[in-house]
Structure formats: structure tokens, C-alpha cells
Design a protein that fits this description.
This protein is an alpha/beta fold. The chain has a single domain (about 5-295), classed as Alpha-Beta Barrel (TIM Barrel), CATH 3.20.20. Helix content is about 40%, strand content about 15%. It is built from eleven helices and eleven strands. The chain has helices at about 30-40, 55-60, 80-100, 130-150, 165-175, 190-195, 200-205, 220-225, 230-240, 250-260, 280-295, and strands at about 5-10, 45, 65-70, 70-75, 105-110, 155, 180-185, 210-215, 215, 240, 265-270. The strands form two sheets. A nine-stranded parallel sheet has the order 3-2-1-11-8-7-6-5-4. Strands 9-10 form a two-stranded antiparallel sheet. Helix 3 (about 80-100) links the parallel strand 4 and strand 5. It is globular and about 45 Å long. The chain starts with 5 loop residues before the first strand and ends with a helix.
Amino acid sequence: MISNKIQLGCAPIAWTNDDMPELGSENTFEQCISEMALAGYTGTEIGNKYPKNPKVLKEYLELRNLKVASAWFSAFLTTKPFEETKKEFIKHRDFLHAMGAKVIVVAEQGHSIQGKIKEPVFENKPYFTEQEWDKLTKGLESLGELAHEKGMEIVYHHHMGTGVQTTEEIDRLMQNTDPDKVKLLFDTGHLVFSGEDPMEIFNKYQSRIQHIHFKDIREKVAKEVKGKKDSFLTAVKKGTFTVPGDGMIDFKPIMEAILKSEYEGWIIVEAEQDPAKANPYKYALKARKYIKEISGI
């Protein structure tokens, strides 16, 4: 069963890490998108090296038959006045709309430790108060309404080191937001690293999943990170994440469930690694071949 509704993209984080610019600082924007296209992908998310002018970016991407799938937006709904997040969100939304994207990746960064190199990612994970949960859910619904003004949707990115990481937290977010206003991003790597069951999350929320990140986990490294109480950034540097087909996750049942659900949208290969240790083109190609093998796409 081959779906023509699914598009495959690749994230630039394998070439240059926006949270740790020293990883891949030598890799240019043009090298990144050229190698994505060469590896057989048709879409990309946005990295810090990408041109900020939609007209300029479009020309670069069209030469390589690439489209923009989405881009990350950091919300601070739990820690800052809503108006601050709203102002930044509208700018982000309008840029993505100009690039033809249909979804906006949103992650709450209030109290997040994902960018703190010395904070143990498991032990120091933040938890929201009742008041913060209220601010988050209401704020996300408002962002969803703003996205609808441009015919777009927000997809919430559960993420290691943040207040929405575990199954329980994803459940609470989904149960307390309007399904029409807040959709979900399904990220295999973050779920497995956190200790969650990706199939359970997918089966439960498939009607709300409108964007997918495929990343794999090196089990041995993940265990070491947990045992040594490493930070999220240290986990990335050590190589916890890798591409589908290179780690512990069996993507075959996941892909079968995605195809069966008649999912329509992007699957983005995203594995933040040190490009000096893991050649981005080689790994992008490896993932592309693996996805072809298990799905025919």
C-alpha cells in the first residue's frame, strides 16, 4: 500500500545544529539543501542559516525541487505575557505562509531545559503548575485561531526537557485543548527516549496528528545518558539520536499504522547528531533507503 498523500522531507539539524551552532558550523545552507535533494527528499524544515526573505529562499529551494514543510516556533505561554508570544508567532506564521507551508510546529519553552548544557534532562525536567497548564492550553488555542486566519494549523511538538514530554502530559494537553484548534506533531525519537510507547500515542491521537518527525534512538547511548544524568544537549553530542533504520526503533509497524490511518502530510527525517561524526548526507541517504524498503514510498 503506497500513499501518494505522504511527502518526505529532511530537517537541516543534521547539517547544522541551531541550539549548538558549533556542530556543523562548517556546513553551508546550500550544501545542506543540495544534499537533501540528492538523497531523494522533496521537503525541508527551516534552519538558522536559511535566508529569511521568502522570495530568496523560494528560488534556492525551487532549483532543487524542495518545498518548506514547516519550522519550529518557541512559545513562552507559561512564562511571558501572551501578547509577546502572539507578536512573534504572527511573524513566524506569515513567513511560513509565504513559503507555502500548511502547519506550524509549536513547542512551549517556558521552563524548558532542552538548551541547558548542565541540566540533567531526566532529573530536572520541568513540570507545569495548574495555572501554567491553563495558560498553555488557552494560549495554544489562541495560536491555533491565528493560524486559521491563513488556512494553517499548529502542531504541538512534545519534546525532551520540556513540560510536555510524557504520555501523561501529552494526554493532558490533548484532553484540554480543542481538537479543531490544536493538532499534534508525532515524534518517534522523543517518545522512545522519554520511555513512552509511540504506537500507543499514534493510535490514540491519529486523528489529530498532522506532522511527523522520524528519528531513531541508539539504545546504548540513551541508557548511558540516563545513567550519567546528562543534559539534552550532551545527549545529542554523544549520539543518542540517529536516523530511522540505524537505531532501536522498529519503524515497520509505525509506518503500517501511518499508512492505514490515511495520514496526509509530511514525514520529516530529523536526527540531530554531530555532523563531524555522522556525515549528514550519508545518514539522510540511509534513512531514505530504509523508508523506501519498509513502505515503498
